[in-house]
Amino acid sequence: MAVTRMKKAYLVAHQSLKEELIEVLQEEGLLHIENLKENLAETELASLASEFTPQLDKLELLLSEIQFVLDIIEEFKETKKGIVEGLLKKKIAVNRLDFDTVEDRIDFRSVYQRCEELDIKFRQLEHRFVNLNTLITNLQPWQSFKIPLSQINETDYMVFAIGKLPYANLLSLQDEWEREFPVSIFELISKDAQSAYLFLIFLKEQKEEVNQVLQKHGYVPINFGELNGIPQQEIMELKKEVVHIQKEKEKVIEKIREIGSLEPELLTLHDFVENKFKKAAVVKNFVHTDQTFMLEAWVQADREVELSKQLSELSSEVELTALDPEPDEEPPVILKNSNIVQPFEVLTRLYGLPDYREMDPTPLMAPFFFLFFGLCIGDFGYGVVLALISWLATKKLQLGEGGRKFFYLLAYGGISSMIVGIFTGGYFGIEAEKLPAFLQALIILNPLKEAFTFLIVTVALGVIHVCFGIIVEFIDRTRQGAFKDALYDQGTTLFLLIFLIAYAVARISIFGWLALASAAAVVLFHGRGSKSIIGRLGLGLYKLYGMSSFIGDFLSYARLMALGLATVLIGWVVNMMGSKLLGVPFLGPLLMIVILLGGHFINLVINLLSAFVHPLRLQYVEFFKQFYSDGGGKFVPFMIETKHLIIKREGEQ
User: Which terminus of the chain has a lower count of CB atoms within 10 Å, N or C?
Assistant: First the structure.
């Protein structure tokens, strides 16, 4: 339930140990390295920062080349990644030896050059392919034109032209043409909904007047460039070339797919080079002298001894100094929770990590999210399916730490849905009356028949949830030595809510008087920041008025009831549709199975999204605002990190 305690670590060593020390630090992953050079004078920084720039540039270029090859392979894969696969980002399992020796196993320079050549060739073919198809499309309106395109030009006395204009302007142009240019030819070759295509012959001496008339009516001249034959013949020849280019493209794609067999090695190489880049880049954070270098970092307090041991094994000439953080320092944050609670850290990270000196909200939020998720699904059968699929995903898919936590979180949601389903009679939308007697005996609340009771239960949970958040803030402020402030703010608010609700439920006058006393305390103490009495009372009244928003906060939890009912009702409708189809001759049983499987699957998927988003919203908007503010920076250890791989340790399968 706490944020891991940190210490500021300073390491000083001789320059001769730098490479070896960096290797050890990256291997162990114990330090979050800071940029010590930021505190140096600018002249010193300029002289010290350039040492590793050429190596970094070289590695950065190599990374971009590897990514280029990977992008080309992905573009031309026979089977593209589906939505789920793309989101999961499945990783490749490799052992450490294969990771360390990948540069020796693949001749990347030749792979890159080959891939670059194929990419250039494909782009050229694709460009020509698009141009030819565009040309064919442009020639289509001219198929009935029997004059060779080579003859569309100017002679000493005549001009032969083709072009198009908006079809709506055809008649007006034709009328003006016949009046102004009687010694000419005006022929309509074809037309479509937008354009009319024209063949024109006119005297060269009238060219300027003709152009003015044509432009006035929106005429656009057409030139087919190097094409010389009759349009219909040219279309046939172009189509033959398109077929040929398509075959050439397929040959290039096949060669690229052959390179695709190297994708696992290329992904390994990418992660290997990226770690080399990080190893070279981290030196920019160090301070150097002619003989020594120094780095500043954060280390977990409970791993300081482990760090000291690793450094002493490296050399006795490495000096480590570890200090507690100063009050004005903001150490990076690591959440420290039990294995059961860790999956819920996904939700905290989505919102933002706590400040180093704040409490971790994850274990406080976990039971409420667990319960709310179950209320939204509320079906034992759906819970079994969700839990089983999530558990299998953690076992069968190569997932990183974040992916595993997410699926364990969904598995918890499945378990919660099973528990709620038992006590609400939710079994794939089957009506409670049709369940076996022993299952009916376990039902405490039937959402369909006791919807109002279900609503009261969800709103009551909202009251508990919000009040618990206020209590947490009270405890946290007391822990920080601000008991008076906690009593004046959270204490009076909590008393007011409790007594108001107690009076509304029990109608006992003492609760009403206690609620009035709590309201008076709110007016007196919540405005204590103001120096004047009038200002204090005015601010207190404003704060009291603002507490009316708690009504909306409590009613927000009614969405849990609505989502729970939606799951039940949709499941019931699916069952009803399936039973109706059972009577269809011959195909009835098959249609029923398809409807039942498909309908319940869709119902689960849709309500799974709602069961995740809406309880999460209640945590963030209603619960967290009572006590929690993010702002902590993530602890980012200097270590071997992989985007595409899972590096197996010795003995792992």
Answer: C
Instruction: Give ∠ CA 186-188-193 in degrees, rounded to 5.
Output: 140
Q: What ranges in 397-482 are assigned the alpha helix state H?
A: 401-424, 437-440, 451-479
The three state secondary structure string of 337-386 is: CCCCCHHHHHHHHHHCCECCCCCCCHHHHHHHHHHHHHHHHCCHHHHHHH
- Over the chain (653 residues), the average pLDDT of each successive run of 10 is 87 91 91 79 47 75 95 86 56 86 93 96 96 94 93 92 94 93 93 93 94 94 90 94 96 94 93 92 85 92 93 90 91 93 94 90 96 95 95 86 92 96 93 90 92 94 95 91 90 91 89 89 85 84 87 93 93 90 82 91 93 95 90 91 80 51
Query: If DSSP codes are grouped into helix, strand and coil, which group holds residue 293?
Result: strand
Same domain, 622 and 534: yes
In the listed set 207, 222, 237, which residue is the last one of a domain according to the structure?
A: 222
Task: Please report where in the chains the tokens 């505190």 appear, as a residue.
Answer: 39
3-state SS of 147-166?
CCHHHCCECCCEEEEEEEEE
Structural tokens at position 189: 């070759």
Instruction: Check whether residue 316 and residue 349 sit in a common domain.
Output: no
- Which token pair is 144? 């009935």
Please give the Cα distance from 383 to 394 (Å, whole number). Answer: 17
Which range marks the domain in which residue 213 is found?
Answer: 153-222
Say yes or no: 294 and 349 in one domain: no
Task: Give every CB contact of residue 350 below 8 A, 6+ residues apart in sequence.
Answer: 616
507 and 603, same domain (yes or no):
yes
Residues 462 and 545 in one domain: yes
CA 522 – CA 544 distance, rounded (Å) = 6
Q: At what angle do helices 380-396 and 588-617 cross, to 10 degrees?
A: 80
Cα(29)–Cα(95) distance, rounded to whole angstroms? 18
Number of domains in the chain: 3
Q: How much is the pTM?
A: 0.79
